[in-house]
Design a protein that fits this description.
2 copies of one chain form a homodimer. With 124 residues, chain A is mainly alpha-helical. Chain A has 2 domains: 62 residues, Arc Repressor Mutant, subunit A (Orthogonal Bundle), CATH 1.10.10.10; 51 residues, no CATH class. Chain A has 6 helices and 3 strands. Chain A has a 3-stranded antiparallel β-sheet with strand order 1-3-2. In chain A, a hairpin with a 2-residue loop joins β2 and β3. In chain A, α1 crosses α2 and α2 crosses α3. The relative contact order of chain A is 0.11. Chain A binds a DNA duplex (30 and 30 nucleotides) through α1 and α3.
DNA sequence: CCGAATCGTTTAGTGCGCTAAATCTATCAG
DNA sequence: CTGATAGATTTAGCGCACTAAACGATTCGG
């Protein structure tokens, strides 16, 4: 199964699952509803889709379904980051980092953190 | 007008325009066709869409249209990068950089380049 | 027992990106 | 002039994300 491309709301759902580890449809609906309105049936429909593409799985617990993520958040991040990298920055990771440093607010602490990573990287 | 989200092929078209500065539909079709098959009419249809959403503009030159980008590649990169950042990395640019360094091949030269940027950043 | 609430399922419709044939129009070769 | 060629425009259809009402089944409060 390929890169697993996700839509906006599908991603919201996955994030709830990654956060909680496991969740019922109702929990997911409520969580998303805290920041934006969404109908419960919409969430359920999307859960179907996610399950069909192998992104999540469920098991019955009583009469409700408990959903769990099958793909790891990190794997997903890698996939989507690489996609951005290839399609928008010509595959040049350096350009992306440069872009981030120039255009995004990166806190002093983050800069320090990055420097540490860089140093470790340079040693290899 | 908002962040200007682009589809996959729309992005290919924009990249040709960013590259060349200006191009006819035919040139764009040929360029894309060098790497993947696409019908000329498809390109023309997409050019319409791009123009409607304000991403490009055209003027007639003889009986053919010459298209030019209206949004800058850099602006686009910023928009799409921020989108990734917010939706996938919780808005934490440091996480994204860390992810890149851990998962992507970053050449020694790139690392050096990044370090320079970091140093400059740190001074501010 | 019965109605309300809560599940999951079915069904339906919208919008958008993408695809490309079909068509109309103007130019150009001969 | 005429046919071919190369523009642009129109039209049509697919797939997918998203939306959510409607429906059927089950459980729970009283």
């Amino acid at each position: 199964m390929p890169p697993t491309q996700l839509g906006r709301v599908q991603l919201l759902i996955m994030q709830v699952l990654w956060d909680k580890g496991r969740a019922t449809a109702r929990e997911i609906t409520d969580t998303i509803n805290a920041s934006e309105p969404i109908a419960h049936s919409t969430v359920q429909t999307l859960l179907r889709g996610l399950e069909q593409k192998g992104a999540i799985s469920h098991r019955a617990e009583g009469r409700t379904f408990v959903f769990v993520p099958l793909i790891a958040e990190d794997k997903f991040r890698t996939s989507v980051t690489r996609d951005l990298l290839d399609r928008v920055f010509g595959g040049n990771a350096g350009s992306l980092v440069a872009h981030l440093l120039k255009h995004e607010k990166v806190s002093r602490e983050e800069v320090a953190e990055i420097r540490k990573l860089i140093d470790r990287q340079a040693k290899k």
